[in-house]
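Minutes, project huddle
Topic: does the predicted pose make sense with nicotinamide-adenine-dinucleotide bound?
PN asked that the exact inputs be recorded in the minutes so nobody has to dig through chat later. Recorded below.
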Amino acid sequence: MNSKVSVAILGASGWMGKTHTMAYQSFPHFFGTSEGVASVDMLVTDDLSDQETLAQNAPGARIVADWKQAVEDPSIDLVDICLPDHLHYPVAKAALLAGKHVFCEKPLADTAAEARELADIAAQKGVVTRVGHAFPRNPVHHMAKEMIQAGEIGEIKLFKACQHIDMYGDPLVPYMWRANGDLAPTGIIGDTGSHVFSFMEFLVGPVKRLIADNFVVTPKRPVVDGLGFGEVPKLTGGEDWADITNPDGSNVMCQFANGARGLVDFSRVATGRKFMQSYEVYGTKGSLVYTYDEVNRLRFYSNEDAVGRRGFREIDVGPENETYKAFLPLPNFALGYNESKIIEAYEVIKSVATKTPMWPTFETGHHICQIVDACMTSSNEERWVDIPQSN
Ligand SMILES: NC(=O)c1ccc[n+]([C@@H]2O[C@H](COP(=O)([O-])OP(=O)(O)OC[C@H]3O[C@@H](n4cnc5c(N)ncnc54)[C@H](O)[C@@H]3O)[C@@H](O)[C@H]2O)c1
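Predicted holo structure (tokens), as shared on screen:
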């Protein structure tokens, strides 16, 4: 394959659509072009009022309204899906069947069965796949993984994590597609839980069984168009009120295949928590602690330190890490969310150009959808749920 990868971005006017467009254009500044470049040739949006901005963001790209045009166009190599959740499965399936490489935002699908089908079609077609779990691509998490693999914290016994936002902390914040069980069937479980689960997969390994308590805090919200995340409208009294038909949050207890125990919680209703993400990994020889508030820093405790001198030490990932160094020559200048998406775009294009899959592929997406499925079943049926182990 030519090292220039022709990309179609579906859902181009949305948050992720714009972020992915930026990321494809930005990564050569940091990683060069020798492992492939992206040519953003098609933008798909159902919001054609945004055409002028889109044309500026990706000069020369065709702007179309129907995602099928991307799937059917023989010149497109990579279909990049930034659409609302319920469209991931049908669009990814059509793209895979057409022989396209597919990069799909999380959650990969609404059910594990759909995700399995996508991973199987991708394997049959021999195409490259990727799911948009970009948080673990921050180099600080590679440092954590390297330390775990090198045995620095011993055998992992306990994993704790959370991710909370306050998008729906105020009961008057309007209804949006994320709260609609038809458009986002798993709600916060697939939306935010899947990010926590991606850290579990990356750092600890597969989950064997779990029990979850999913909850809805505010059962109805006003319908008011045009507001952003967490914005509270001035209500006129004439609004329609829509039912919230998917979970606002969940508390989950789990057991990993390697015997470790997990305790995680996540929600969109944690008033005051603009973005709270953290994990703690406790092993037999030491522990690692991370919080997004210090986005490039790990806290490491080691039993090998002298008694009387033990305590958590702070380690900032810096330019000794090649990925960090691609952006910044000095430590503690902070790589953040958009850099993670730039790293992701670089890896996606490299994967397609060299036909080398990189984590997280649709196989990983399937594992994560299995955890999401298990949370839904467990909470609905109020019981522990076993997760079938696969490759
Ligand atoms: N990886 C991450 O950190 C991350 C962050 C945010 C969102 N996401 C995921 O990305 C996806 C998109 O989320 P978002 O925040 O960008 O949402 P968004 O609402 O900002 O954007 C979605 C876009 O899709 C467009 N759209 C909807 N139906 C369409 C159709 N049939 N054809 C063409 N365009 C259509 C909408 O007009 C909108 O512009 C979701 O699945 C979400 O879970 C991932």
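Observations noted during the meeting:
- The CA atoms of residues 167 and 230 lie 4 Å apart.
- Residues 137-334+368-385 form a domain with the Dihydrodipicolinate Reductase; domain 2 fold (CATH 3.30.360.10).
No decisions taken; revisit at the next huddle.
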